[in-house]
Write a structure and sequence with these properties.
single chain, 235 residues, alpha/beta, Spore Coat Polysaccharide Biosynthesis Protein SpsA, Chain A, seven-stranded mixed sheet, binds uridine-5'-diphosphate, binds magnesium ion
């Protein structure tokens, strides 16, 4: 059985479209599956829609947070609750194309434990976002002892045994790409071009993005801690 974990935050105009697309793709594979929506404290109709889907289709499971905890925590919750032999995490706005699911499954069948996708381009990312993103990955890889795939997204497949190891990482401020990059296992990458969102706008405000980038740095390297110590001594 395959688990598909999807964090959703105010995605009322995407839920049903995404559900239809994933359902169509999964029905064409030979695998049984569950689609696990983690509603990250949405204030629109997201909760009602995922509950309705769960009621009418036994493949769907719906979880709702009491408030917004952020994308990384929502994904983590879904990975904790998933029952599959492989778990695929993907966004619910169609920027992680469901047509790629069979490609991830194929790599898994070939024997890879972690199949990481890499965005080669994002249709709605401007020049500044692309430059800051590539600069960020160069920086974080220069201070981190474990590799983080540049342009890596949280669209990935993990085998059950990798999921079991991942579940032992319990820090609240987290950068899942960094944890997975440092986990070992037989990993491979697949490139894809991220299309525009199907509907709505990005749920990542500048503030959320900066926090996320900062979490990446402070959870993947001890250099900031050392720096703080030396600056403190000097001061
Ligand atoms: N998301 C979430 N909690 C948040 C922000 C985003 O669960 O606080 C979800 C969102 O609904 C989407 C996925 O995470 O399914 C990626 O978010 P988004 O598309 O806004 O990010 P972007 O693609 O712009 O980086
Ligand atoms: Mg998106």
């Amino acid at each position: 059985m395959i688990s598909i974990v999807t964090p959703v935050y105010n995605e009322e105009d995407n839920i049903v479209f995404f559900y239809d697309a994933v359902t169509q793709v999964m029905k064409n594979t030979s695998y049984d599956y569950e689609l696990l929506f983690v509603n990250d404290g949405s204030r629109d109709k997201t909760e009602m829609l995922i509950n309705q889907l769960a009621q009418k289709d036994s493949h769907v499971r719906a979880l709702t947070f009491a408030r917004n905890f952020g994308h990384q925590i929502a994904i983590t919750c879904g990975m904790d609750m998933a029952c599959g032999d492989a778990v695929i995490t993907m966004d619910g706005d169609m920027q992680h194309p469901p047509e790629l699911i069979p490609v991830l499954l194929e790599k898994w069948r070939e024997g890879f434990d972690i199949v990481q996708t890499v965005r080669t381009a994002t249709e709605d990312a401007g020049f500044i976002k692309r430059m800051t993103s590539s600069g960020y990955y160069a920086f974080i890889n220069s201070i981190s002892k474990t590799p983080i795939v540049p342009g890596g997204s949280d669209f990935r497949l993990m085998d059950k045994k990798a999921i079991q190891v991942f579940r032992r990482f319990r820090e609240h401020s987290r950068f899942i790409r960094g944890i997975v990059g440092g986990m070992g296992f037989k990993q491979t990458t697949i490139e894809f071009e991220a299309p525009k969102r199907h509907a709505g706008v990005s749920k990542f405000s500048m503030k959320k993005m900066l926090h996320f980038a900062m979490d990446g740095v402070i959870t993947n390297s001890t250099i900031p801690l050392h720096l703080a110590f030396y600056i403190g001594i000097l001061a």
